[in-house]
Amino acid sequence: xxxxxxxxxxxxxxxxxxxxxxxxxxxxxxxxxxxxxxxxxxxxxxxxxxxxxxxxxxxxxxxxxxxxxxxxxxxxxxxxxxxxxxxxxxxxxxxxxxxxxxxxxxxxxxxxxxxxxxxxxxxxxxxxxxxxxxxxxxxxxxxxxxxxxxxxxxxxxxxxxxxxxxxxxxxxxxxxxxxxxxxxxxxxxxxxxxxxxxxxxxxxxxxxxxxxxxxxxxxxxxxxxxxxxxxxxxxxxxxxxxxxxxxxxxxxxxxxxxxxxxxxxxxxxxxxxxxxxxxxxxxxxxxxxxxxxxxxxxxxxxxxxxxxxxxxxxxxxxxxxxxxxxxxxxxxxxxxxxxxxxxxxxxxxxxxxxxxxxxxxxxxxxxxxxxxxxxxxxxxxxxxxxxxxxxxxxxxxxxxxxxxxxxxxxxxxxxxxxxxxxxxxxxxxxxxxx
Length: 434
Hints:
By secondary structure, this protein is of the alpha+beta class. It has helices spanning 25-36, 62-70, 74-80, 104-110, 119-131, 181-189, 210-213, 217-224, 274-280, 286-293, 317-331, 342-374, 380-392, 406-413, 417-427; strands at 18-21, 42-45, 57-60, 82-83, 86-91, 97-102, 115-118, 136-139, 142-148, 154-159, 165-168, 171-174, 201-209, 227-233, 236-243, 248-256, 269-271, 301-303.
């Protein structure tokens, strides 16, 4: 008997077998959500030999925090994170403040503050949660190929050391990133193709330590503030905030770049040139130059679309992957698919698609729109945007930076995907049965 009174094996002799391809944020969250839903046979396949978590800072929005709390991961993450009290949107060339928004209302309105932290902390907490679940097994150094879907999913696993072998399962979930082989196989089965489109944007990811910044009072003040700052300019911006209990200043940029469409790296990641980075932001203010100049040569990382299948301008990439996982934890609950029939599992996945597709696509487009608006060059459109920023100082109107706009936040943070999934399952005739 399971924790929630659901006997997973009541209609068969074996538990429902779930396989997940990829152990990134989405794969880890899927495994944990399904284990919390009382599945007992979950295997995660990962091509890397281990989960040596890297990366830089990440924004931890309330819609993500709500799910992580339900999964038992949030406290560990929040203990190392920094709560954002305010955001400042500034002109990159002058450091003039265009708009300022206090963020204290977010905690009061949505039950969780808006925080910022380290990606390694988020991924590590999810992984720790998975390791506490006996239902979850990890297969590292494993490449997946030859994926088929009927009558039940199957695929070939090729270990880095060892012979290939075949796996059959009841449910296969592809969480293998923007270059997903699982997606390619599924679309091929449907007679479709979907090539990855390069956005023409890339990002420098930088982390400066307190020790590096301590001799510059102006920069040190940035590290000690509870503030997310965005410096905007034509076709580019810099966004930065303190993480790791204010021991690290996380800096992320966005600017035009055409080098990643055919990048050989599975993550579109390469070493960046400090000289080129300084040139890209050459017309930014002296304080920005001093900040970027602190980066040691050889420690500039340049990343492309793989890090942001949705562009980063709403800070919702990881949050949406975690929402996917939470919804799957509801629609694929053992009590809903206990008969193991492919048509029942397919119905559950169709409900997942119905809940997630429209929302995810809308947020992807809204992020792209926000990027276009923040990257305006000189002209009438920029003048009109800056008038809206100016109106903020009198407490009137929307925030042109949609990430900081209260109405957009309500749409994103106020959405409880678990409640929506439970409601949809009831409406579609797929209730959880004991």
